[in-house]
Amino acid sequence: MDGQANLRGTGVDLHLGPLTGTRVRAGLENALRDAVRDGRLAAGTRLPSSRTLAADLGIARNTVADAYGQLIAEGWLTARQGSGTRVAPGRPGPPDGPRTRRSERPATVRPATQANVTTPSEQTLTRAGLMSFPQETRLPYDLRPGSPDLSSFPRSAWLAATRQALRRAPNDVFGYGDPRGRPELREEIATYLARARGVRADPELVLICSGFLQAVGLLGRALRSGGARRMAVEALGFPDTPAILRQAGLTTVEIPVDADGARIDALGTADAVLLTPSHQYPTGVSLSPERRTAVVTWARRTGGTVIEDDYDGEFRYDRQAVGALQGLDPSAVVYAGTASKSLAPGLRLGWLVLPERLLEPVTLQKRMADHLSPVIEQLALAELIASGGYDRHVRRMRQHYRRRRDRLVAALAEHAPAVRVHGIAAGLHAVIELPPGSPSVPALTARAATLGLALAGPTFYGDLPEPEADPASSGWGTRDEGAGGAGVGGGGGTAAGAGGTEEGSAGAGSAGAVVPGVGDAGVGDAGAMEAGRVLTSGAVADRRRVAGPTLVIGFGGPPEHAFSGALERLCSVLAEATAGRA
């Protein structure tokens, strides 16, 4: 194909030149960039649908859709449901910049233009032991863990729930109310958790808070005021949690994590312990039944408190549903949940199901912190749950993330068979372990950044020791060279487990291929893949046993249009890093 095409409804000609084979998509992307850059496509201009433009150009619709997706990821275009694809406001590059030519390989981004800038506020967070959250990256693709697919937020259902809640709400709901939160939401949360997670919840013992981090701070200060001094935390985990507990006046003590989850026998003289028993963060292992019983027994014997962080309990794929630990003894276990993964972190909605002895001190801390969480969001979530919209959204997203998980496993089996993948029977992230002698995590993240992909670096979950990379095996340098992204360590974890599937089969992998080892039986709780085989045992995250560099990949976060490109670049990095390694 050659010549030019007119964008229907815009009066803009695209000067494409001769296009054949794999150059069609690249040529279309360049033509659209040029049209935006030189002003022929003004900000806000609505582009034809992929079907319409494909018909006009005589090319495949997928080619147009992929080109649109690439330009959306780069910031040239935007897409919203019901509004179509439009030219983004502003320009992501200099107006007189050179025309970009793309090869069949992922494009290279100059490191000087892509790195996240450390601001004074981020430096302050670092000094406090807190992790900064660069919500925006200059890189077009992002596989850092911690976020759901924000493009899948149920806007229409949320809007309908908000409108319905506002129609029903009396005027007094907008005043200063109960610090525990609106009774409508506490009632719905109690009912939902009992049904979906096996939580024994009295609405009077439910407290609504502004996300999990506020919950940790409230609990830490309440426990400290009651005489607690030492809080045990999992040795691998989210770094903000121990930092916030220390700010509350508690001393944090790390306990190891192995194939059966946190080592309950290592609690020692701790007054309380914070666990992720359903899906340990980040290794993905579950707390074994024996240890679940052991930690409840410990709490009863010592008067200690167990805090259960059920951060992604809704998203399980191949393992049998495991009920909440709180169901074993509501008087000993605090259940903490959040809408950050099921809906969006920007809502800042979380909840605690408290033992009666902690209700008053935690409520007091909530009142002193901010009195109560935003009311309209509480009412909207209550309406969404009551209408069944929340359940429908969770079911849809469970299948959405499962398909992504399967695509990740299939792509790695094909392009980087030497890596091992752990912790994928549930949740929105995967632990990828490279063979010994592979480039270090900082080198991997730096290499990914040159391809436009943001990965988490070595400090996100705690500093695991890494084997020295073999600098002769690649041009990436040693473990001390390079920087990139915002932190990861973590190690792989597996645990043999039974499992059937829930709500449908695994689905197909990339390019329509059946995912190796993933079918109606699922990958099982083992969650490990090597050379396309599903393993039932393997290395588990432990600071003393790390076989090779380990990445934690967030497959849940990218918008749908950017996931394929992110996966392509990840495979390119890992294939290069593991070439010739067993």
From TrEMBL:
**Top-level taxon of the source organism:** Bacteria
Question: In its keyword annotation, does this UniProt entry include Transcription regulation?
Answer: yes
| SMART domains tied to this protein | HTH_GNTR
Q: What does the record list as coiled-coil region(s)?
A: none
Q: Which residues cross the membrane?
A: none
Q: State one Pfam family annotation.
A: Aminotran_1_2
Region named Disordered:
82-129, 462-511
Which segments show compositional bias classed as Basic and acidic residues? 98-107
Q: Where is the composition biased (Gly residues)?
A: 483-510
* GO molecular-function term, one example from the UniProt record: transaminase activity
The chain positions of domain HTH gntR-type read: 22-90
List keywords of the entry alphabetically.
Aminotransferase, DNA-binding, Pyridoxal phosphate, Transcription, Transcription regulation, Transferase
InterPro entries associated with the record: Aminotransferase_I/II_large, HTH_trans_reg/aminotransferase, PyrdxlP-dep_Trfase, PyrdxlP-dep_Trfase_major, Tscrpt_reg_HTH_GntR, WH-like_DNA-bd_sf, WH_DNA-bd_sf
Compositional bias segments (type: Polar residues): 111-126
Give the family this protein belongs to, as stated in its UniProt record. Answer: In the C-terminal section; belongs to the class-I pyridoxal-phosphate-dependent aminotransferase family.
Q: Which PANTHER family match?
A: HTH-TYPE TRANSCRIPTIONAL REGULATORY PROTEIN GABR
Name under which the protein is recorded: PLP-dependent aminotransferase family protein
Please tell me the species this chain comes from.
Answer: Streptantibioticus silvisoli
